[in-house]
Amino acid sequence: RAKSTGPGNYVVFDPQMHAQVSDLLQLETELRKAIQQKEFVLYYQPIYNLADLRITGFEALIRWIHPEKGMVPPNVFIPIAEETELINPLGEWILDTACRQARKWNKGGRELTMNINLSGVQFKDKNLINVLENTFRKNSISPLHINLELTESVVMGDAEESINTLNKIKKLGARLSIDDFGTGYSSLNYLQKFPIDNLKIDRSFINTMETQSGQELVRAILAMTQSLGIKAVAEGIETWEQVKLLQELNCNLGQGYHFSKPLDEESADALLQEHNTDSPAMQEKEPS
Ligand code: C2E
Ligand code: MG
Ligand code: MG
Ligand code: MG
């Protein structure tokens, strides 16, 4: 397959590209095998209520533990999985595993939300609503505890069609987030029509917040979420300064290395235990 640089553009194959393509093909073969051999795990990054610094839930983030290469990041293999339809079995495994974990963590009356990333291919799949419904039922999890994340570019792609699908998901009872907000192209008119609960402000805005213009941008996004009546989630919080600023600006929720990196199940479990008994002592903590 020739690399596409846009509609109507051609790229001539050169030897370097040949190497890249065979790398990709190899990765595809390995990915197929990895699904059969279950080389994936979910990591969980806690999400905090910024006003009281309590954990409100987790975002599930997939990891591929490759037998030779070690940890392969999702930005490398998710696009390949999407191109090859492997995203369907993989996506179902992610949903099932994250829902099972949410059920475990909410036993005994906790009310944690599990955020799950949906790829664009999954979102457009005709079977999505069935898959979601079955997965929630199978794991006896209330859809109210599930928050599905979709990137801005996926939902803006075919906005009218997206509204339909988003409404169907809301009918099931699940919550919805726009992920990586600010990195794509959003029509504010559509944003208003989407039945979304949360808007996740991309990390690139949070880490430029110490500059005047960066802060103005975050301020503007927060004013918009407030007028839309939805919650804002700051992604990629790395410093206590950022926490303080976001608190002053009334940003509702946040996640990032300042609080915690994504954790394996066991470590996330330990964090929760500790969090339940202690008062949240995150105040002056530096990123680890
Ligand atoms: P995302 O959904 O926007 O996830 C946030 C990414 O930012 C995660 O990277 C997370 O580890 C990272 N992150 C969190 N806090 C910080 C911070 O303070 N500083 C920095 N520098 N990074 C931070 P990760 O896990 O590598 O995932 C990358 C992307 O891959 C995700 O972006 C998402 O688009 C995709 N992805 C991950 N897991 C899944 C999945 O289960 N399904 C699908 N479809 N996509 C996934
Ligand atoms: Mg996400
Ligand atoms: Mg994001
Ligand atoms: Mg992202």
Task: Explain what you see.
- The chain has 288 residues and is an alpha/beta fold.
- 48% of the residues lie in helices and 19% in strands.
- Helix 11 (240-248) links the parallel strand 8 and strand 9 (253-254).
- Helix 3 (87-106) runs parallel beside helix 5.
- It is globular.
Question: Any key phrases for this structure?
Answer:
alpha/beta, 8-stranded mixed β-barrel, binds ligand C2E, binds magnesium ion, Response regulator receiver modulated diguanylate cyclase/phosphodiesterase with PAS/PAC sensor(S)
How is this fold's topology laid out?
Layout: H1 15-36, E1 40-49, E2 54-66, E3 70-72, H2 74-83, H3 87-106, E4 113-117, H4 120-124, H5 128-138, E5 146-151, H6 152-157, H7 159-172, E6 175-181, H8 188-193, E7 198-201, H9 203-206, H10 212-228, E8 231-234, H11 240-248, E9 253-254, H12 265-277
Parallel strand pairs: 2-4, 4-5, 5-6, 6-7, 7-8, 8-9
Antiparallel strand pairs: 1-2, 1-9, 2-3
Helix pairs in contact: 3-5
The structure holds ligand C2E and magnesium ion (3 copies).
Ligand C2E binds at residues 45, 60-62, 73-75, 78, 94, 117-119, 149, 179-180, 203, 235-238, 255-257, 262.
Protein name: Response regulator receiver modulated diguanylate cyclase/phosphodiesterase with PAS/PAC sensor(S)
Region (Disordered): 268-288
Domain EAL: 24-276
